[in-house]
Fold these 2 entries.
Entry 1:
Amino acid sequence: MIFGVDYYPEHWDRTEWKNQAKLMREGNFNTVRMGEFAWKLFEKSEGEFDFSFLDEVIEILANEGIKTILGTPTAAPPKWLANKYDILQRDRYGRKREWGSRRECCANNPHYIEKSRIIVEEMARHFKDNKNVIAWQIDNEFGCHGSTRCFCENCRRQFGKWLGEKYADINELNKKWGSVFWSLDYDSFDDIILPGYNSCEIEYPPNFAHNPSLDLEFRRFSSDSWVKYQKMQIDILRKYTNLPITHNFMGHFSDIDYYKLAEDLDFVSWDNYPDTQWGAAEYEHISMAHENMRGVKNKNFIVMEEQSGPCGWDRVGSTPRPGQLRLWTYQAIAHGAEGIVYFRFRTALFGMEQYWYGVLDHDGVPRRRFYEIQKTGEELKKLEKYIVSAKNNYDALIVKSYDNVWGHEIKRHTEKYDYYNLLYSYYKANADLNICTAVSCGDYEKYKVVYMPSYNIVEKEEINKIEEYVKNGGVLVLTFRSGTRNTYNNIVPLPVPGVFAELAGIEVEEFDAPRREVTICGEIDATSKIWCDIIKPVSAKTLCTYGSEYYKGKAAITVNEYEKGKVYYVGCDLDEPAMKKLAALISNAAGIAMIEAPKGIEIIRRDAYTILLNHNEYEVSLPIKGKSLISGKDFDGRLEGYGAEFICEDDYMYEKY
Ligand code: GAL
C-alpha cells in the first residue's frame, strides 16, 4: 500500500537529501511523488534537457526503500517558453493571463502542446528503465486557478472545428441551438464565437448573456480540451512504460467532466484539504468528495495530496488537532482510498506556499504531526490486507452529472438554488443514517435507491436506462428542476417534470421560488425556502402537502408505483432534519438498514469489518462491540475524540483474519 509524501527536492540543498530520505523512512513512508513543477530544471533552455538531479534523488530515496511517482511538469511552464511563444490563456474579457504562477497555458495552444509533447517524451525515455519509479502522474490539477476555460483565438477556432464534427451542418446547429432567437444564426463553423464579454453581464456565476446552448457546448468543449491534452501525454508515456498512470483530481471541482478525464487513466488520485485558511469543511462534505472520486471510475483511488498541517496561502488555517491527521487518513480509506500521500514533506521556506505546512515544519524538525503520521503508517502495515481492493457495499447512489452542473450554473433558476448544495443535502441525509452511499452515474441496478436530484438535462439513452431500473423494481428519487431540458440545454415542450412525468405519475401545475419560508406537512413536517413545485398527482400518491401560501393543501412530495418499482418526486427543498426523515422513509421502503449514531460519527461496513470514525473532539459511546483489528483488543464501543477504529464484530471472522 502506498504511504507517501509529496517531495520537492529542488527546494532543498542537495546536502540535505540523504537526511530527508532517512527521516522519511523513519516516518514509515514508502513512496514520494516528485517532479510535477520542475520543467525549468529539466529543460533549462529550449531543447536542453537534464534530469540528473532527479536521478540522484530517486537513487537516494531508493536506498531508504522509498519508491517514486513521477509527475510530468507541464503545469508550470518555464519563462523561456512564455517568452518565445504566445502560450498564455485569455480570460473571458479577452485579457491575457500573466505568466508567474502556474497553469497559465491554453490546452489548445499548438506551441504549448508541442513543447509539452517534447518534455514528456524526453522524461518518459529517460526514466523508462528506472525500477524505482512505480507510477506516473500527468501534470497537476487540471483546471485549478480557474484555468479550464480559455477565450483565445486558438480555442475559438478549435471550438468551431469541434462543433463542426459534432453537428456537420451549420444549419443543423442553428436549428438545435435556436439561433433564430436575437438573430444569432451562424453562416459557417468559422463564425462561431466564444461566450466571452459582450457588454451584457448577468450576475452569477460571472456569465454573459449568451445563447445557453453555446454556453453549455463551450463548457463541454473546454472540458474535452483538457481530456485530449491529457490523452496526448498518456499516449506518449505508453510508448515507453506500462506503469500505472494517474492525474490528481480535485474532489468536488466540476469544471472538467471527471468521468471523461478518468476514462484514459489507470487510477484516479486526488488532493484532499479538509481545513484550510478558507475554512473547515463538514466531514460529510469530505466523505462525499472521496465518494465522488471513487465514483468517477467506480474504482478505489489514491489520495495524492493529503493535508498534513495548517494550510493557507496568504494566511494560515487552523492546526489539525491531535488525532485528526490519522482520522482523515482513515476517512479516506473508509471511502475507497488504498494509498495516501501527504502534502508535503517539509514546509517551503520560499514561494507562494510558505504557509502551507507539511509533515515537518520549516526547520525540518519532526514534531507531533510527524509522529502521528508515523504511527498511522505503522498501523497501516497491519491493516493493509483489509484495505487494498476492499469494497464498500453500496445501498444508495447519488447521481452526479457534469452536464447538469454546467446547465444549472448557466441557468440557475433562482438566487438561492445551487446544484451542489442539493446533491450534498441528499448525500448528507444518507450519510447521517450511515447508509453506504455512492456518488457516481450509471449502473443503476447495483443500488436499492437512486437519487437524481435536479437531473434536468437528460440524454435520450438515459431515459430508457432509468425506466428499466424502475420497471425492474428500483426505487428512484427525483426532485424539482428535473427532466425538462434536452442535450442542447433547451427546454422540452412537455408538462413538468418533462421526460420523467410518466415515471413520476404527476404533473407540476405551477411552481414558486418563495420569498418566505413555506411549511410542509404529512408524512414529514418540514420547511422549504428555495423552490416549491405545486403538484397535481396523476397516478402518484401524495406523501406531503404544503401547509402555507396560496397552494396550501397541494401536493409537495409524491410517490408513484411504476411496474415493480417506485418513483418519489420531491417538489421542494427541505430543511436538514426533514431531509434525514425523508431519507429514512425512502430507505425503509427500499429495505436498507440504517444505523442511528451520534452526530459526527461515521460507521462504514465493508466486507467483514466495520470502520468507525469519530469527527468530534470528545469521546462517544457506540452500540458496536467486537475486536479491534488495529490493537487486537476487545472494543467496548467507546471511541475517543478524533478516534478511528477497524472493528471485527464477528468473533468467527476475527479468528479467520
Ligand atoms: C494543491 C496543489 C499543490 C499545492 C497544494 C497547496 O492544490 O496540487 O501543488 O499547491 O494545493 O496549495
Entry 2:
Amino acid sequence: MSFEKLGLSAELLRAVADQGYTTPTPVQANSIPVILEGNDVLAGAQTGTGKTAGFTLPMLQLMHKSHPERSRKHAVRALVLTPTRELAAQVAESIATYGKYLPLRSTVVFGGVGINPQIQKLNRGVDILVATPGRLLDLIGQGKVDLGHVEFFVLDEADRMLDMGFIHDIRKVLKLLPKKRQNLLFSATFSEEIKQLASGFLHSPVYVEVARNETAHQVTQMVHPVSRAKKRSLLSHLIKQGDWQQVLVFSKTKHGANKLTLFLEGEGISAVAIHGNKSQAARTKALADFKAGSVRVMVATDIAARGLDIDSLPHVVNFDLPHVAEDYVHRIGRTGRAGNSGESISLVSGDERKLLVGIERLIKKSIAKVVVPGFEPNDVEDAAAAAKDPKPGQRQQQRRHDPSSPRKPHATRNRRPGRNERAASKG
Ligand code: AMP
C-alpha cells in the first residue's frame, strides 16, 4: 500500500514525502479513502497510530477541492476539538505540516494562555480551527468565532474528552454547527457513553478499527562521514558490533556489490549480491536465503532492489549514496515497514557530500551525522580517489530523468556495458 494509491493530491503527497513517510499506517490506509468519499467516520485509534494524518490529509484535500482559491473571508470551515492543549498544539502543527503546499489557513486556540493573540489570529481569518472546548466556547461567547460555515467536525480522543468532563461543552458546540457537514470521531475506547454521543451526531458512519499495537513507525536516519577507503571495514564493524542479523546494503554499481560481498564473506559475515548481471535463478535463491535468515547481508543495486518483496528490514545501509536523490527515499522505505521501526545508515565519503546536500534538500531535513571513532573521513584521499573515477552514476541519472516512472531492468541490458560492468565481467 502506498500513499499514491489512497487518492491523495500531488500537494499532499509531496508534504507526506517531505516527512519521510513511505507507507500509510493502517488507520491512514483505512480512513483516508472513506473520508475522501465524503463519509462520516468512527475510528478506534489512539495516539501513535498516525491518526492525525489519517483525518487531516483527506480533510485538507476536500477543503481545497471545494474552494481551490484562497477565500477572502476565511470563515471557519473545519473544527477539530481535542481534550488537551498539548494535543491541540500537536494537531495544529500536523495540519500546518501536511497543508504546507495548500493555501489554507489554520490556527489553534486553547486555555491557559492569553486570549488576545488568539483573537487577532481569528480576526485575520482561518479555514481550520483546532480548539479545546473551554476556550472555544469562551471565544464564541465573545463573538469571535462563527461556526455557521463548518463543513468538517472532528472530535479527537473522544474518550478522553468525556473522561475530562467535556460532554456538556461538546453538546453546546454541536448545536452551533450547520446540519450539513462531515463528522469524524476518533477514540481509543468505546464505552456506552461514547457510542451514545457518536450515534447522536454521526450519519451512517464507516467504522474503522486499528489494533492497539499497530503504531506508526518511523525510520531513523543517520549519516556516518567516513573516508572511502574505510567504508568496507566500517560496514563490517557496524554489523558485528550491532549484531545486525538482516541488513540490506545498497551499492551504486554491480561490480561494487560483488566486491563488497566478497569482502564481507572474508570478514566472516554471510552475504549475497543481487543485481542485473545475476540470473533470475541466482536472484531468487539469494532472496530466499536472505529471507530465511541463512544470509545476513544482501548487497543490491537500486534497480535490482526495486522489485524485491521484503518486509520490515531493521537496517538499510547506503554504502554509496544514490546519484538520484529520489532513490534515497525508495531505499529507506525498505526499512521500518509494517509497524516496525527501522534504521537507515548512510556511509558518506568526502566526494559524496554534494549528493547528501541534494538528498537533504529533497527530504527537507538535515540527517544526523556521527563520526565513528577509528573511521574518520579523509577528504584529501577521497578527492584523489574520486578524480580517478569518471562517475559511472551520471549516465544513469540522465537516462532516469523521471524518477516516478518504473525502472525497467531490461532497458539496461541492451546498452553497451559501462566501464564498471566491463571491469566486473573481467574480474
Ligand atoms: P499520531 O498518532 O497522529 O499522533 O502520529 C504518531 C506519529 O507517527 C507522529 O510522530 C507522526 O509524525 C508519525 N506518522 C504518521 N503517519 C506516519 C507514516 N505514514 N509513516 C511514518 N510515521 C508516521
